[in-house]
Inverse folding.
């Protein structure tokens, strides 16, 4: 049920777009209104969520230290896994965000029976995660050719690298293959590993199916059912310049693609996909481990009721004197 | 004779539970896994709400009428106070990287002991009541109503987490189950749902200065006993001071070191070392507890107990503070104390009077770890050591969770051990340093009624010890935590019998050649030294 | 072919069946974890199971001494004694070996079952099960011991100073198996 439902939901979205554009001819709704709405929700939703998170203070300095602390000059500090400076924190966060450092930790060499050295299987999660996120980013950047009159050199270089193998016509993008493979693996992993299946929610399957849908429609458009590419650019440029137009003959599949992307944007701020923003706010990673050196201030620190020394001495004065302990009051 | 099941019938019993989703699998509270409920008198001492005597194994937990309201209101309050809590409730993608990192899961196989699921127990309530998707879609969005069975389930698993942070190391977003457990336990305390093993020590510590509730003369009495033992072993009579104004240094250690075996040998170690150095230090009977069981109840309670350390340092007019070997004590001292009760501007940046080393890394808290202090002494050749006195001991070192993942104190104790012992072997790589496994009994789970749970949690650590025992003949497990010293003793007795559990400063004192000492025949425990067995 | 040879030849198949039977006593979600994770430090329960079942099987085949058998079974039962099992559940896995053996041997219709030898083998399995009960009880007793001793250790110094330890036990120390007895009248005073 928790797998079927999100799957059916994504199929339903595809049919909705097909019916909306192919049958009901609601080109303007699906080509202009929904994308605008989705982008607006995404931007404001994202900012709102970050703002809500940011509104809650960080009362304590709680980095997870993952290496040797800074103590003596003769003991080597692990500056990236236990950073005591801002630079170190930036390094740690960069490793975390760009290379998924913590997930990679799983792959440390292990001693198995034998004893034999070998590698942990969790490397797959790290590799698939990294492949997925990076190819998604590159594909996203590649799409900028639709948003700009003249395609910048950087973009052309990325496209060149991405189609490095020079296979097929139009040239096959590596990232297309990697993205689909990685998402498929991530779905498969959730289904095949009982522990992961046990903890998974519909909200874990839905984005995977949705992104798979986006990727497949995109790939179909590029390699199989060709769409009117000039028309697509015209439509997108219209959206970007706030003078929307609906060119004729683009093809329904484009609208399905666009609708799924719009859904993703709408869904993003209210879902776990916000981990994209949240990872930057995680106090166990983004704080320097220098709380013995620099005092961390808690904005809501308040005075508390304590049991003072005076009260303590009052309780035990006679016993203390008998034991020869110095007292404040005789 | 009644006809019992035949072996074949027994063998055919299918213990596999029905294949239900975790939300639909009810939790049964089992003996050996939980600690007794808090007593009203202890909660009343520290003015905690809803104090009453209650028993977790009974159906009726005697909850206040509006317990749901209290819980949810408390949750709202904490979400507003802690970004960590709010972010961690929202961003988990359930990738499962943490699943098999928890010692309780590894040792029990209970799926709700996977860190992700332990957090989901609370997260499901959060989704249901604090997110739009959950309010509209309910269970479909992973939401769950806070019912009595749900509350009991959350309670049960919150007290099967030792806040060791091993999962947070592997989480790609740094989600820290310790943080979630702390919030959860804080909420439970609003309902009086504490355990006796935690609330008793908290009340004691608040009124009398230490977890065991020992009054000033009892503390001195115990230390005098140690002094007698030291004299018997070394021929040297040492003379520590208590509550002395004008001392240079205040020394604070967990009270376990003062009374509990084998922690007392570590305490003897500190005293012998300080005596040999002629250190100008004092004990305090008011701040006689470095540990902080308040940390396992609520942030406010932890602060109330911790306040005594700075207050006493100020009253006595010392320059700085040295802290003994303890785990969660150092998490508190490193990441919380200064924020709660600082700034300690009445103290000075710690400078070792022996070596002149300035401890820049503690220039704000003004409190240094005793292994930092000693490592510096050894590095500067200030100690005369005879490591061969520890030759009977084949040592490995257990990193405490808190000093490893809440501080990063990894190489200092190792440096000391390697200088005072001739035989040292590390346990396997993924069980030490930042990846260290918990003893299985931290955060106030070191009671006796939950011994089965403790042994499960202690299995991964014990398993690694067993490995080095078989591989290298290791017979001694050194550590720098008072709870470890007590609980690893129990865990070793069950899993790896014949393993001695020791503090690092016990090893130091064994090797320490003191001025004017007689020829030592035994180690601190009264066991004959290598080569002296015949005497 | 003698039973010994038959069992040796089909060892890995029988062990596979036996492990399945044992794992089926855990919740299904757990089973996968125990089976799949190979690292002995990340999965001590699984390691204890796979490693020991094979050794127990070999020991049964080769008429190992009771001491050796006890040592082997101890590894598995020690773990099960602290998990959520009743005593019967904790040791039932020993009996499942009989089923695993019969199922595997009767798969091949051409080989008649060596009934007499088999019943001898099964008797040895039954003996193993009885030993397992003993081990289980010892583990539980150990837990109670630890429980009792820990309280005394926790306040060792105090008890010692208050002269509440019996002289003869004091010499044995708190970590000795004797345990520390507190003079009842002193405590109640």
């Amino acid at each position: 049920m928790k797998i079927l439902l999100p799957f059916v939901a994504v199929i339903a979205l595809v049919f909705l777009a097909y019916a909306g554009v192919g049958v009901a001819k609601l080109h303007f709704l699906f080509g202009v209104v929904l994308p605008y709405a989705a982008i607006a929700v995404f931007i404001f939703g994202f900012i709102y969520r970050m703002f809500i998170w940011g509104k809650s203070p960080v009362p304590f300095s709680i980095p997870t230290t993952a290496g040797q602390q800074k103590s003596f000059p003769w003991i080597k500090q692990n500056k990236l896994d236990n950073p005591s400076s801002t630079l170190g924190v930036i390094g740690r966060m960069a490793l975390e965000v760009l290379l998924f450092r913590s997930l990679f930790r799983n792959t440390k060499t292990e001693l198995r029976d034998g004893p034999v050295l070998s590698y942990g299987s969790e490397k797959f999660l790290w590799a698939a995660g990294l492949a997925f996120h990076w190819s998604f980013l590159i594909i996203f950047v590649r799409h900028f050719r639709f948003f700009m009159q003249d395609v910048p050199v950087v973009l052309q270089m990325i496209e060149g690298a991405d189609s490095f193998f020079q296979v097929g016509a139009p040239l096959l993008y590596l990232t297309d293959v990697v993205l689909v493979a990685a998402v498929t693996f991530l779905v498969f992993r959730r289904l095949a590993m009982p522990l992961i299946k046990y903890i998974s929610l519909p909200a874990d399957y839905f984005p995977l199916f949705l992104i798979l849908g986006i990727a497949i429609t995109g790939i179909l458009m590029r390699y199989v059912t060709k769409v009117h590419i000039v028309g697509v650019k015209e439509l997108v440029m219209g959206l970007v310049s706030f003078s929307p137009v609906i060119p004729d003959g683009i093809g329904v599949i484009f609208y399905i693609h666009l609708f799924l992307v719009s859904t993703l944007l709408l869904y993003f701020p209210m879902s776990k996909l916000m981990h994209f923003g949240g990872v930057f706010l995680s106090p166990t990673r983004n704080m320097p481990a220098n709380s013995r050196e620099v005092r961390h201030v808690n904005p809501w620190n308040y005075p508390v009721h304590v049991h003072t020394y005076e009260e303590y001495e009052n309780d035990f004065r006679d016993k203390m004197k008998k034991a020869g302990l110095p007292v404040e009051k005789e | 004779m009644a006809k019992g099941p035949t072996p074949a019938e027994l063998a055919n019993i299918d213990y596999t539970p029905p294949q239900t989703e975790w939300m639909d699998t009810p939790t049964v509270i089992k003996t050996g896994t939980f600690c007794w409920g808090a007593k009203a008198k202890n909660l009343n001492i520290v003015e905690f709400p809803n104090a009453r005597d209650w028993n977790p194994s009974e159906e009726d937990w005697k909850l206040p009428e509006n317990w749901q309201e209290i819980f949810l209101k408390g949750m709202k309050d904490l979400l507003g106070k802690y970004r960590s809590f709010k972010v961690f409730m929202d961003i988990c993608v359930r990738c499962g990287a943490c699943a098999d990192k928890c010692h309780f899961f590894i040792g029990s196989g209970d799926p709700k002991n996977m860190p992700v699921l332990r957090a989901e127990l609370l997260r499901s309530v959060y989704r249901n009541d604090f997110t739009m998707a959950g309010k509209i879609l309910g269970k479909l969005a992973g939401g769950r109503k806070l019912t009595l069975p749900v509350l009991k389930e959350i309670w049960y698993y919150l007290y099967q987490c030792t806040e060791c942070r091993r999962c947070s190391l592997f989480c790609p977003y740094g989600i820290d189950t310790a943080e979630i457990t702390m919030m959860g336990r804080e909420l439970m305390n609003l309902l009086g749902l504490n355990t006796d093993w935690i609330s008793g020590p908290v009340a004691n510590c608040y009124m009398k200065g230490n977890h065991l509730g020992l009054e000033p003369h009892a503390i001195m009495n115990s230390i005098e006993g140690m002094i007698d033992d030291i004299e018997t072993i070394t021929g040297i009579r040492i003379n520590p001071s208590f509550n002395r104004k004008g001392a240079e240094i205040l020394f604070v250690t967990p009270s376990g070191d003062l009374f509990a075996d084998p922690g007392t040998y570590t305490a003897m170690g500190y005293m012998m070392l300080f005596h040999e150095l002629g250190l100008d230090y004092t004990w305090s009977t008011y701040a006689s507890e470095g540990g902080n069981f308040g940390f396992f109840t609520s942030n406010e309670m932890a602060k109330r107990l911790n306040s005594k350390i700075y207050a006493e340092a100020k009253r006595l007019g010392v320059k700085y503070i040295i802290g003994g070997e303890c785990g969660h004590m150092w998490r508190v001292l490193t990441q919380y104390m200064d924020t709660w009760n600082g700034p300690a501007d009445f103290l000075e940046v710690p400078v070792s009077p022996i070596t002149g080393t300035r401890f820049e890394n503690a220039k704000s808290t003004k409190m240094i770890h005793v292994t930092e202090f000693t490592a510096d002494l050894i590095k500067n050749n200030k100690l005369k050591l005879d490591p061969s006195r520890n030759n009977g001991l084949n040592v490995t070192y257990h990193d405490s969770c808190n000093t490893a993942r809440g501080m990063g104190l990894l190489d200092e104790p190792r440096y000391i051990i390697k200088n005072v012992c001739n035989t040292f072997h590390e346990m396997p790589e993924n069980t030490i340093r930042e990846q260290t496994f918990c003893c299985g009994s931290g955060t106030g789970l070191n009671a006796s009624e939950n011994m089965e749970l403790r042994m499960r949690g202690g299995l991964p650590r014990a398993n690694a010890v067993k490995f080095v025992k078989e591989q290298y003949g290791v017979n001694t497990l050194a550590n720098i935590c008072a709870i470890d010293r007590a609980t690893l003793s129990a865990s070793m007795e069950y899993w790896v019998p014949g393993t001695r559990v020791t503090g690092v400063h016990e090893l130091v004192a064994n090797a320490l050649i003191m001025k004017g000492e007689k020829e030592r025949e035994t180690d601190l425990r009264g066991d004959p030294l290598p080569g002296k067995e015949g005497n | 072919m003698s039973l010994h040879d038959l069992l040796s030849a089909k060892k890995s198949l029988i062990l596979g069946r036996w492990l399945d039977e044992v794992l089926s006593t855990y919740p299904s979600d757990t089973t996968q974890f125990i089976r799949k994770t190979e690292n002995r430090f990340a999965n001590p329960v699984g390691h204890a199971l796979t490693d020991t079942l094979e050794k127990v099987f070999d020991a049964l085949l080769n008429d190992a001494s009771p001491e050796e058998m006890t040592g082997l079974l101890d590894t598995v039962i020690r773990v099960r004694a602290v998990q959520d099992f009743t005593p019967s559940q904790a040791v039932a896995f020993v009996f499942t070996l009989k089923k695993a053996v019969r199922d595997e041997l009767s798969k091949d219709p051409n080989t008649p079952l060596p009934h007499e030898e088999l019943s001898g083998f099964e008797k040895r399995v039954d003996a193993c099960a009885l030993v397992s009960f003993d081990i289980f009880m010892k583990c539980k007793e150990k837990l109670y011991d630890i429980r009792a001793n820990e309280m005394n250790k926790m306040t060792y110094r105090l008890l010692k100073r208050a002269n509440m330890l019996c002289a003869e036990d004091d010499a044995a120390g708190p970590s000795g198996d004797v345990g520390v007895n507190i003079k009842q009248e002193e405590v109640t005073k």
